């Protein structure tokens, strides 16, 4: 299955009996699928059907959907000026200007007031409205298909990028596993040297107790479990990328697991070389998690 990014853009248009219908869709990251519509007056009735169409296709992402409709000449009812009301408003504005020095009223300002312009009820029949609504939703489906293609194209690019990060995580894990400082003989020699230094510094120290503490520290410093879990997470990440689909949340959880093991590896490290590997691992995991945020 393909992967989808949550970012994308699409535009689709069509004509219906001389009317021009245009949908523009923009998608960005989001925890769930949230849709915001900008619909022209008279098209609010379509919002529920349009929302269902969007949420049927996408599981995550904040999507802005704008509809623009240009009606054919003569198909729209012409607004009528309520001249009596306009005259009263103009007189009131003039009195306010004379008495209080307010700015003079303008024609466009007065016409913009509620009730000055009246739009007669549409003469559109139920059958014509149904055809128009069907055309608008059909154009939306076309736009949604284009948005899906846009998100998939970016999703495939992210698949390659995330796969590269997982390869790097695996390489660093194997590098930590093979580091000479993890050899039992090296660990024993280093601990023996530290115990000898402590005994030379103070004869009051209990040699047997020191050896017990050294053995305990050696056990705590063992990063075998962290390496094994990192290998398991690498395999899980590759399987998720290969399977595709809406895996953004699963990969985000996996990134948290990568980060947890990287932190533990750094804290348990008893060699500068392994610490350096752990820090580099953390940097790659951060990059991995940042890119995962873009996936559906």
Automatic annotation (TrEMBL):
InterPro entries: YicC-like_C, YicC-like_N, YicC/YloC-like. One of its GO terms (molecular function) is hydrolase activity. Keywords: Endonuclease, Hydrolase, Nuclease. Pfam families: YicC-like_C (PF08340), YicC-like_N (PF03755). Its cofactor is a divalent metal cation. The keyword Hydrolase applies. Residues 3-159 form the Endoribonuclease YicC-like N-terminal domain. Residues 185-296 form the Endoribonuclease YicC-like C-terminal domain. Signal peptide: none annotated. PANTHER family: UPF0701 PROTEIN YICC (PTHR30636:SF3). Belongs to the YicC/YloC family. This is YicC family protein.
């Amino acid at each position: 299955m393909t992967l989808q990014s949550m970012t994308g853009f699409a535009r689709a248009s069509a004509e219906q009996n001389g009317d021009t219908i245009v949908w523009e869709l923009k998608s960005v990251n989001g925890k769930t699928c949230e849709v915001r519509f900008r619909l022209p007056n008279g098209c609010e009735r379509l919002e529920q059907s349009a929302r269902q169409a969007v949420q049927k296709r996408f599981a995550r992402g904040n999507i802005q959907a704008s509809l623009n409709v240009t009606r054919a000449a003569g198909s729209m009812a012409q607004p009528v000026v309520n001249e009596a009301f306009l005259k009263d408003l103009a007189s009131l504005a003039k009195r306010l200007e004379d008495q209080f020095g307010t700015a003079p009223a303008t024609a466009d300002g007065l016409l913009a007031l509620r009730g000055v312009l009246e739009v007669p009820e549409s003469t559109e029949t139920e059958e014509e409205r149904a055809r128009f609504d069907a055309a608008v939703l059909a154009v939306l489906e076309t736009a949604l298909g284009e948005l899906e293609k846009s998100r998939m194209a970016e999703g495939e690019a992210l698949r390659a990028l995330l796969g590269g990060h997982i390869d790097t995580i695996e390489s660093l894990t194997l590098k930590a596993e093979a580091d000479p400082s993890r050899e039992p003989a090296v660990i024993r020699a280093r601990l023996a040297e530290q115990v000898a230094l402590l005994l030379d510094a103070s004869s009051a120290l209990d040699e047997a107790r020191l050896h017990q503490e050294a053995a305990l520290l050696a056990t705590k410093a063992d990063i075998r479990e962290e390496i094994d879990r990192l290998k398991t997470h690498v395999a899980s990440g590759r399987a998720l990328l290969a399977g595709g689909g809406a895996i953004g949340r699963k990969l985000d959880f996996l990134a948290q697991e990568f980060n947890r093991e990287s932190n533990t590896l750094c804290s348990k490290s008893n060699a500068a070389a392994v610490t350096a590997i752990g820090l580099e691992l953390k940097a790659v995991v951060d990059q991995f998690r940042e890119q995962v945020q873009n996936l559906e």
